[in-house]
Design goal:
Oligomer: single chain
CATH superfamily: Metal-dependent hydrolases
GO molecular function: exonuclease activity; metal ion binding
Distance between the termini: 26 Å
Helix content: 40-55%
Radius of gyration: 18 Å
Binding site for a divalent metal cation 1: 128, 242
Protein name: Deoxyribonuclease TATDN1
Keywords: Cytoplasm, Exonuclease, Hydrolase, Magnesium, Metal-binding, Nuclease
Pfam families: TatD_DNase
Number of helices: 13
CATH class: Alpha Beta
């Protein structure tokens, strides 16, 4: 990692939302010497990790990832995610929900089952839930009905929403708008939309979660452009791997030379040794935060610290 100096976010009092100055200073000191990162979305219940999850978690720790939220995408997946938090206490946390792809599996008892899972302190969010009109693995009307029920549940239990949206921006905004006066904080996970969409979500108070998708985005109005223009405030930014998906192919020709040059040897060593297109891992998170910082033209330590504080604030991590 390159030499670093202590950095502060633009308005630490606002970002920390009451977090003590001493706590912020402790985080700054740790970030100054090594990354202190939170992966807000990793699918560690995926069968690709069934044989070596211990090693995957250890590599994440070695890379500077201190907390991981294991994504719940179905009732069974949410139960398994919660089980993993008991195996790695203090490191793994979970969410509970039904992904739009699986909305067609919703039954009358799902609401109560997810509510029960969410009553556990290790379960820190409702989701992954939302709308995916790109693949439509579940009918759109079913997706909207199931999504609305999960937003209602998040309002009832008072836990943040972990949101998924593909090609469904208008309906996402419309449904969330029904709950605007009582909706808990929310993050739009793995954002891949346009400038206008990002600005609308930010206007609604949402956080924006970014992944290794950056490597393949070349649109004039996509995530890269949004970062280059500085449109996402640091106090609304979160980072994630979405492992085993969203492998950041930093060797790709779509990534400008100056961005590649900003990637540290240490971060690349984790990526190149342990991550592939077939199986990304949380240890790739340092490369992702370095790419984001390079596009934003901000010190990576500053971006790392801000996203960590945001995750602590949003999900209540210790």
């Amino acid at each position: 990692m390159a030499d670093s100096k202590e950095k502060s976010v633009d308005n630490p009092e606002k970002v920390a939302d009451g977090m003590s100055a001493l706590k912020i200073k402790q985080i700054e000191d740790e970030v100054a010497s090594s990354y202190l990162l939170v992966d807000i979305g990793a699918n560690l219940t995926n069968s690709k990790y069934s044989r070596d999850l211990d090693s995957v978690v250890e590599r994440a720790k070695d890379a500077g990832v201190k907390k991981i939220m294991v994504t719940g995408a179905s009732v069974q997946c949410s139960k398994e995610a919660l089980r993993l938090t008991r195996l790695y206490p203090g490191m793994l946390y979970s969410s509970a929900g039904i992904h739009p792809h699986d909305a067609k599996t919703w039954t009358d008892d799902c609401y109560d089952v997810i509510k029960e899972l969410a009553s556990n302190p290790e379960c820190v969010a409702i989701g992954e839930c939302g709308l995916d009109f790109n693949r439509n693995f579940s009918p759109q009307d079913v997706q909207m009905e199931v999504f609305e029920k999960q937003v209602q549940l998040a309002c009832e239990v008072g836990k943040p929403l972990f949101l998924h949206e593909r090609d469904a921006h208008d309906d996402m905004v419309r449904i969330l708008g029904k709950f605007k006066d009582r909706m808990p904080p929310a993050v739009l996970h793995c954002f891949t939309g346009t400038t206008a969409q990002a600005l609308k979500y930010l206007e609604m108070g949402l956080y924006i979660g970014l992944t290794g998708f950056l490597w393949k985005d070349k649109s004039d109005d996509g995530v890269r452009s949004i970062l280059e223009k500085g449109l996402i405030p640091l106090d609304r930014l979160l980072i994630e791997t979405d492992a085993p998906f969203m492998y950041p192919n930093v060797r790709g020709s779509k990534i400008p030379a100056n961005i590649k040059q900003a990637l540290s040897d240490r971060s690349l060593s984790f990526l190149n040794r342990y991550c592939t297109f077939q199986r990304n891992e949380p240890c790739s998170l340092p490369v992702i935060v370095e790419m984001i910082a390079a596009y934003m033209k901000r010190p990576v330590e500053e971006v790392a610290m801000a996203t960590t504080i945001n995750a602590i604030k949003l999900f209540g991590f210790s």
